[in-house]
Amino acid sequence: MTESTLASAWLQLKQDQPSLRIRNAAELLGVSELELLLAQPGANAVPLQPTGRDLALHLPGLGRLMALVRNDNAVHETSGRFADLQGGGMMGMFLTGELGEQDQRFFFRNWRYTLAVTEGERQSIQVFDDSGTAVIKLYRLVDTQIAHWENLVAQHSDTPITPEFAEAPAYERTSLSGSAEAMMQDWRALTDVHQFNTLLKNHGVDRLSAFEAADDDLALQVDAHLIETALFACQLRQIPLMTFVSNRGAVQIHTRVPGTLRRTGPWFNILDPDFNLHLNTEGLASAWISRRPTVDGWVHSLEGFDEQGRSVVQFFGQRAEGRHEREDWRALMDELVSKAVVAA
After folding, report:
1. How far apart are CA 138 and CA 60, in angstroms?
2. How far apart are CA 128 and CA 183, in angstroms?
3. H or E element that contains 236
4. Is 214 helix (H, G, I), strand (E, B) or coil?
5. Spatial distance between the Cα atoms of 11 and 82, rounded to a whole number of angstroms
6. What is the C-alpha end-to-end distance of the chain, expressed in Å?
7. Residues pairing with 252 in the sheet
8. d(CA 305, CA 287)
9. Predicted confidence (pLDDT) per residue in 81-97, tens digit
10. pTM (2 d.p.)
11. Closest CA relative to residue 258, chosen from 320, 196, 302
12. Domains of the chain (ranges, CATH numbers)
């Protein structure tokens, strides 16, 4: 498909489906999101030289930004300042605290293309992986440090690009390399929730397959509609949630009591002043409650997966390191477990 043909097809799609997001339009048209962006009429996309860590180091100086991280079935948008970048090598972290409201984990090995994009009044810096799939989009706000933004774009603009797209890697489920009993023994010996990813690597298993292989006291499948039930319960009981959405290049987290909850077709939404979550519940093939031991007691999560077994969204009750899990969150998880047991 030529660029002009692609542009015409995109215009027609927008007329037929005004709320269609560019990622979904690209899927319908059989191209990558970056290809569609470069062909989009009225969009000025300027390649930038800094990418990966070099770009991330500029973010604290830009003031408040809206950061958007998404996968196929969840869109996670947070507004706030970035504190100083932490971590080294191909991994970087922004943490909330006195200096920043943004909370991300970045995997720079999957950051390939960076563009400054102007679409009408909206200005953004967008990062894509080598398949042309968006990793993160950073939007300018009224209280962004405009001079810093404009200097970044002016000083680091690159020559026009003709991307060579790699095929997006297929997600592959991995079965246990050993016995379920050995994995569960190591699982019950965890002392920190962050050790769970190491456990998965050590046993050569993906997250969902580990849940499926574990006993019900460690991971229990529940009906996916209970995610919506849980969000309404957190709103009513004022339980602050940690909401995680991830893709190949980024994990974005937001912590707060959910405020405005609203369904729009297949999308269930949290619509708060500095945080939006758009969750396509029709894309949830399964949901699970997992339990992990720490030195401070057990920690529960509520997680949704798609048909391929990829993580769509994860919820934890707010918990600071060195403190026990919130009793109200644990009580809610126990209620959902009892619903699942009764249903079974």
Report:
1. 12
2. 35
3. helix 226-237
4. coil
5. 35
6. 50
7. 104, 245
8. 6
9. 999 999 999 999 999 98
10. 0.95
11. 302
12. 19-156 (3.40.1570.10), 180-343 (3.40.1570.10)
